[in-house]
Specification:
Blueprint: E1 6-11, H1 17-30, E2 35-40, H2 44-55, E3 64-68, H3 70-80, H4 85-90, H5 98-101, E4 112-116, E5 120-121, E6 136-140, H6 149-157, E7 166-174, H7 179-188, H8 206-218, E8 220-222, E9 228-230, H9 235-242, H10 247-252, E10 261-263, H11 272-277, H12 301-316, H13 319-323
Parallel strand pairs: 1-2, 1-4, 2-3, 6-8, 9-10
Antiparallel strand pairs: 4-7, 5-10, 6-7
Length: about 325
């Protein structure tokens, strides 16, 4: 293994291993390409737990992998982001934000970074899509994961353009990000000042706002949603969940016959273990062909305001109280 390896990164804490172990097992088993996986985690105890988990997964020996702790990434970031005070402070906010900042520090000049969340499942033998020379590839979802509203409005007034329908379960990018611009944007959004100190709220979704803005600035497009599937908590699924339909039965409804990857966001991540044990997630059909990349769609302020008004109406009617937020 060497030059042909795909460069894959996962940012996670050891607390995610209950479902992440199934992500790793399916990734190592189903990838038709050699991988070099860097697992970026937190303290020494997390490093130990993640390493022990991955070492016990069948098929991991087919690929290269390593676990990197926060002490190591902090040291690297101090040099890599020297002079980028907002980026450096941002790394100390929500742990998910480090998915934006940390993987690229380990990439060679211009080298690809395939970024994965730990709540993914790879149901069939597959190949990753080609990472563009410039630009970003992101998953598509409806509606999007841009939240909280005050930070989204902050991006509109920065001003920057935002891509609609973004899901950041999988992202392809190269080490060509304009970090001066990112530093400026984080500052315009309020920056990370610490809990209850003003600035950005400690919300994991801030990560999506940054990727959405980077997508519109750098170009690229959405991964083919026939191959790269995102779970959506639709109104009908809310009804089924309220009726206490089991996770396995819920997962049977997903169309994964031809999927390369399934992002089990939200509640679905906790169903992966039972669904995998039930053997309902895999068809065995290899998916080697590249999907069709669709251009990013801009989220317009007027559309976002309409969406927020509708949410306020539904909240006033008690919809979220009854069906879940």
């Amino acid at each position: 293994m060497g030059n042909g390896e795909r460069k894959v990164y996962v940012v996670l804490g050891a607390g995610a291993l209950g479902y992440a172990r199934y992500c790793f097992a399916s990734l190592f088993r189903q990838s038709l390409e050699a991988l070099h996986v860097r697992l970026i985690t937190d303290g020494a105890e997390d490093v130990k737990k993640v390493a022990e988990c991955v070492a016990g997964i069948e098929g991991q020996e087919r690929h290269r992998w390593e676990v990197i702790g926060k002490a190591q990434t902090d040291e690297r970031a101090a040099e890599f982001y020297r002079g980028r005070a907002e980026v450096l402070a941002f790394r100390g906010g929500h742990p998910c934000w480090r998915k934006v900042t940390d993987p690229v520090m380990y990439a060679e000049a211009g080298e690809e970074c395939v970024l994965l969340d730990p709540d993914l499942y790879f149901p069939n033998p597959f190949t990753f899509e080609a990472t563009p020379g410039r630009g970003i590839l992101l998953m598509w979802q409806k509606p999007n994961c841009l939240y909280p509203p005050e930070s989204v409005y902050g991006a509109f007034t920065a001003p920057v353009q935002l891509a609609d329908h973004v899901d950041i379960g999988v992202a392809h990018v190269r080490e060509v990000i304009d970090w001066q611009w990112v530093d400026w944007l984080i500052g315009r959004l309020g920056g990370w000042r610490g809990a209850n100190a003003g600035g950005l709220p400690r919300s994991m979704h801030i990560e999506a706002i940054l990727w959405s803005a980077l997508a519109m600035k750098m170009g690229g497009g959405y991964l083919d949603r026939a191959y790269w599937v995102c779970w959506r908590r639709s109104a009908w699924k809310r009804v089924l969940m309220k009726a206490r339909v089991s996770g396995v039965k819920m997962m049977r409804r997903e169309k994964l016959m031809h999927a390369k990857c399934f992002h089990a966001g939200g509640h679905a991540k906790y169903w992966i273990a039972d669904a995998a044990k039930a053997g309902i997630l895999e068809s065995g059909e290899a998916q080697r062909e590249p999907g069709t990349v669709m251009p990013f769609e801009e989220l317009r302020l007027g559309k976002y305001e309409t969406q927020q008004r509708m949410k306020r109406v539904l909240k006033g009617m008690g919809f979220y109280k009854v069906m879940g937020g």
